[in-house]
Amino acid sequence: MATIRDVAEAASVSIATVSRVLNKKARVSEETARRVWTAAAELDYWPNEAARSLTTNQTHVIGVLLPDLHGEFFSEVIRGIDQAARESRYQILVSSSHADHDEVMTAAKSMQGRIDGLIFMASDNGLAESVDRIQGRMPLVLINPRRIVKGTASLRIGNFLGAREAVNHLLRLGHEDIAILKGPAGNIDAEERLRGYRHALAAADRDLGASREFQGDFLEPSGYRAAAEILGSRRRPTAVFACNDMMAIALISAFGGAGLKVPEDIAVVGFDDVAIARYIHPPLTTVRVEANQLGQRALRRLLAILSGGEAEGAVEEVLPATLVVRESCGASLAGYSTDYSRRKESPGSMPGGTARDSDPEARGD
Amino acid sequence: MATIRDVAEAASVSIATVSRVLNKKARVSEETARRVWTAAAELDYWPNEAARSLTTNQTHVIGVLLPDLHGEFFSEVIRGIDQAARESRYQILVSSSHADHDEVMTAAKSMQGRIDGLIFMASDNGLAESVDRIQGRMPLVLINPRRIVKGTASLRIGNFLGAREAVNHLLRLGHEDIAILKGPAGNIDAEERLRGYRHALAAADRDLGASREFQGDFLEPSGYRAAAEILGSRRRPTAVFACNDMMAIALISAFGGAGLKVPEDIAVVGFDDVAIARYIHPPLTTVRVEANQLGQRALRRLLAILSGGEAEGAVEEVLPATLVVRESCGASLAGYSTDYSRRKESPGSMPGGTARDSDPEARGD
DNA sequence: TTGTATGCGTTATCAT
DNA sequence: ATGATAACGCATACAA
User: Is the minimum CB–CB distance between A253 and chain B shorter than 8 Å?
Assistant: First the structure.
């Protein structure tokens, strides 16, 4: 492959001049510039970006560290990051599926020198240590961290308020016996949604008997298993809050298979608002999470830090999770039930948490 | 940040020795090695990988160029690539959403020097030129190329056979009037699936009147629009082959909304076998595409080329698309209808194309 | 306006 | 076994 030296030789100039022309950094005579451009084209010269970033100290690449790419949520986050990156002509260096601290560290280390900053999704337990070790080496933005790290920017979903709103919706509809299908233990999203569920019930003076809490893991099969449990319990709940849509969809399918009608016999509400939520039967009432937005904002936040204009305050950002009423709870508010257009419901006209409700959304409430 | 020089100084050795110790490349005395390790730990030294790759000429990073990350198919491909990459301690540099040739080239150029090879998904038209210009600069693997490029490895989906099998399934069930809901024009997958549909009908001496072909774009709303068209046509088809699952799901939902029963009144078959295909009502009969496998294999293929052990022959690989019979066509073969476990059906026991049917799968048949 | 020379942080080739 | 030192490919401060 041709190097800058080859181009210089072909254009009969020094490598410094070639660099100047290609980067448009300094004034070069029309004539020599032309010679350089044609020589570069002739040789099909592509600058070596690794060498480039060695001197300039910047790469135009953002690192992305994720626990796993599985599920629509993660892929939407990545997509959001990538979209925002493209707008600013950045690329993303991705590494995912990291189970423990050591794996995260080796991944982060092998990004050293090839990224300008890092977006780190440390939603599971035990990754706080990784954050501490990365922190300070490079600009860092956290997505869904378990705890706030002083001085580190972070973005997260308003899980608590969203879950609370979903359960409140069921309560308003008159449900007295509301079960929850939980997410995997140790997962911060699952925990926050559980907390929202409990909070809503407690506020309504409802019983918090453990028998109304069923264990799931965010995957469809656990929804099926839970459905069997729920149907087998002596006092069948009249409504179930599933901690994500995939489990909710499995529930509905299983209930249907058992001869139960949703929402007449049992109501189901989900969480996430995945793409197919509105296309299943009945259309799923759920809590919308803007995963794509989460990714976009995380990247823009990082870019803001890179340009040095990052304010110290308000380092934590909460993206609202808003209730989307469809038909799986039997309350088809006028105007929503027939809306099949994707992502078009006006969020402003809907009840639900917003980023401004910062107090109740605080962790460890 | 500490450099190799700082470590050398702290350990009272030369930078050469530090490099030797850290890379375990040459024999170093036990004593000095220990000193180097502790110094490196003390200073929390992370080697600059950009500088490293400048001399070693390899990065342990694979570039991934995609048209867009949208949809489950793309995200599964990426996930497959990433999974396989992780196994070999590689990372992936991603850039997506490239509309035209110029965008692809700038993206590829800014990867120069920071990747060992490139996986390029050039499924849309007009990207052949990009391939030619990248080809030769770096090891390259194509996913779903529109045409075969001599000497370039490529992987693709057996769209033709998969579609043909889906339509044959409908024919075997006795359907006489089978419509197709097409994918976006210019998309190679859509075109191949259409070709399979036409081929199956022609082989069965069926009429190929254009009125039985409805235009879609792989997105849900187009499924809804098509449903209205289909219901409005004077002779309603008894079955519809939708070119992907999202449109099939929208069809089923719309048909249900119009009072039609699937499969009793109208049969629907999809393509992709997305995660929720088995959870909708009725469970969707579809053609399974192993997007994840496609990604994994693409990466392994690239790694094989990198290690130099790539045979010249058999540069094109076709991944089979296999029919998965559920209930949306009314033919619930024993053993399949109640299978809710994810990705567990044995592919061997199912009809459908395989990679060995290389002849009929050939393009431009 | 252009060229020379130094440095970026490594690895690798020589010596010693 | 270890230490100088020359690349790697580029950007840039300084000279001319």
Answer: yes
Q: Which structure tokens are listed for B70?
A: 């949208």
As beta bridge partners, residue A323 has A287
Bridge-based pairing of strands A91-95 and B91-95 is antiparallel
pTM: 0.87
* Nucleotide nearest A5, from its CA to each C1': D9
CA distance A92 to B66: 13
Structure tokens at B284: 């969707």
Single-letter amino acid, residue B297: R
Given CA atoms B164, B165, B166, B168 in this order, what sign does their dihedral have? positive
Report the alpha-carbon distance of residue A116 to residue B77 in Å, rounded.
26
Give the pLDDT confidence of B42-87 residue by residue, as tens digits. 999 999 999 999 999 999 999 999 887 677 888 889 989 999 999 9
CA distance A298 to B113: 27
In the structure, how far is the CA atom of residue A12 from the C1' atom of nucleotide D15, in angstroms? 20
**Beta carbons of A46 and B112 less than 8 angstroms apart:** yes
CA distances from B92 to A233, A294, B78 (A): 48, 21, 9
Is the distance from CB of B119 to CB of B334 less than 8 angstroms?
A: no
Burial class (CB in 10 A: 0-12, 13-18, 19+), B9: middle
Residues spanned by CATH 3.40.50.2300 within chain A? Answer: 61-157+292-319, 159-289+321-363
* Structure token pair of residue A281: 């039967």
* Distance between CA atoms of residues A319 and A242, nearest Å: 20
Tell me which residue in A109, A256, A279 faces B46 most closely, judged by beta carbons.
Answer: A109
Three-state secondary-structure class, residue A178? strand
Are B284 and B256 contacting, i.e. CB atoms less than 8 angstroms apart? no
DSSP state of B348: G
Through-space separation of residue B118 CA and nucleotide C8 C1' in angstroms? 27
Provide the CATH topology of domain A61-157+292-319: Rossmann fold (3.40.50)
**What is the topology classification, in CATH, of domain A159-289+321-363?**
Rossmann fold (3.40.50)
A153-211 residue pLDDT tens: 999 999 999 999 999 999 999 998 999 999 999 888 999 999 999 999 999 988 776 66
> What are the CA-CA distances from residue A80 to residues A35, A134, A292 (Å)?
41, 23, 4
Q: How far apart are CA A258 and CA A271, in angstroms?
A: 23
**Nearest residue to nucleotide C2 when comparing alpha carbons to its C1'?**
A17
Output B20 or B348, whichever has higher pLDDT.
Answer: B20
- pLDDT digit string (tens) for A113-153? 999 999 999 766 667 788 889 988 999 999 988 887 777 89
Residues of B in contact with A248 (CB under 8 A): none
A103 in B contact zone (CB under 8 Å) = no
